[in-house]
Amino acid sequence: MTLTHAPAPESGPIEIPDSAATTPTTAKPAGVSHTAHARRWWALVIIAMTQLVVVLDGTIINIALPSAQIELGLSNTERQWVVTSYVLVFGALLLLGGRIADTWGRKRSFMLGMIGFGAVSLYGGLAQNALDLLLARGLQGLFAALLAPAALALLTVAFPFGRERNIAFAVFGAVAGSGAAVGLLLGGFLTEYTSWRWCLLVNIVFVLIGVIVGAFVLSESKSEGKARLDIWGAITVTLGLGALVYGFTLAEEGWMHVDTIGFLVLGVILLAVFVLIETKVAHPLLPMRVVMHSVRAGAYFVQAVMGAVLIGSTMYLAFHLQLVLGMSPLLAGLASVVMTVITILVVPMVTKLLPVTGPRPMMVFGPFIAAVGMFWMTFITADGSYVVQVMPGLILVGLGVGVTLVPLQNLALVGVAPSDAGSASAMVNVAMQIGGSIGLSVFALAAASASLTAAENGAGDLAVQASGYSAVFLSAGIALVLAGIVSVFCVRGKKEDLLPSHG
């Protein structure tokens, strides 16, 4: 069986010797050396580590924010933008990064992205003021936008089909699902025992490992032929996404303000122009065939919601644990890691079930399970118990995330031609990062509105904060319900057509 709507490959991608269509699913093909076969699994390790870095960097700073705010004198708005600047720039530039990886070379893009990411992490770790930190976070997003789609495209061509592909994407999905919570745990540990600055400096360790090992185990691949970069498409989609997210951020001050309406309208217009450009140019930044496939479109929407949950809501969870329940940074990180542990435990079981049930049941029930967990946490109070009010919700969210993310990565790339691997891979991360940045803005609005209402009703300071965080969890739960509903209608087709494996 081949990928949906894609012809069976006659030969493998460039320098991927074991991707012939006749390859058995459980053994490497004849003529492929043991060394070459083993290199793919080392490549998976490096690619998974890369995904961990780009995901955890969306949250690792969360627990450190109170300490960074005091040392650098950040305002509350600047504090939120420490997170938003990273995920916004990351998401807005991912499509361009994916196309660069396709045309310039995926390994080459991966290596440049890693080196740049390490350099600006050093800059951020040495930040002396708010501008330094915000600029460093934005530049991290820029290099992550080059790094992440190259990494996922390398994984796609290294494991083109079969049981090994399912295993590879299960590992990748588990890392993507757990990275946000790992960031909270690591951020808590580093903040408490070293300094908040090490939440950025620790990236240098990952970068050194990735560059050194990646130089030996990764094989270069890129699209066949020469393709020109879609500059106007890159400009319109970057400015459009940026304007849209910034408009949501301004909505915290009021939906009817001229600035809010102006940026939201501008974002929509620019994105509409982008779509028009993509239908006209010879070498589009995002071929419309990538997103017009109903299954992939549904997967991208679910990924966006997961981004909002794993990036946006976890920031407010960190605030609740520290600012309301009074936990130390390390204890707050440990309290959050419950979600990660459940995800890690669930993934192997879900991976074994995937060929039996197919992706659709998981894509439907996973978001609903996570939604129940979010709704549970809406009952938090200023004097409540973590064990009663928070931990059961985190267990359910971890379960739902694990169930959802195992099939999600495969569905987001199902039926994609090798020449579109970079763009489709970029869309996976675009959805997550833009979902996260919009989620941060929407959650900030929900928290502010609920906190204002609680304050007007005479609630104390801690109760006001708890009311705001409760509204965030309610919003996240509603978004997860919508993701489950979208999966019902979009993730359709025979089980075999949705599983890129043979036999």
From TrEMBL:
Entry's Gene Ontology molecular function annotations: transmembrane transporter activity
UniProt-annotated location(s): Cell membrane
Biased composition (Low complexity): 20-30
GO cellular component: plasma membrane
Residue intervals passing through the bilayer: 41-61, 81-98, 110-127, 139-161, 168-189, 195-219, 231-249, 255-277, 298-319, 331-350, 362-382, 394-414, 426-448, 468-491
Pfam families to which the protein is assigned, alphabetical: MFS_1 (PF07690)
Gene3D superfamilies recorded: MFS general substrate transporter like domains (1.20.1250.20), Multidrug resistance protein D (1.20.1720.10)
Membrane topology summary: Multi-pass membrane protein
Domain Major facilitator superfamily (MFS) profile, chain residue ranges per copy: 43-495
Chief localisation class: membrane
Keyword terms: Cell membrane, Membrane, Transmembrane, Transmembrane helix, Transport
Segments for region (Disordered): 1-32
PROSITE patterns noted in UniProt: MFS
UniProt protein name: EmrB/QacA subfamily drug resistance transporter
Species assigned in the record: Leucobacter exalbidus
Lineage of the organism: Bacteria, Bacillati, Actinomycetota, Actinomycetes, Micrococcales
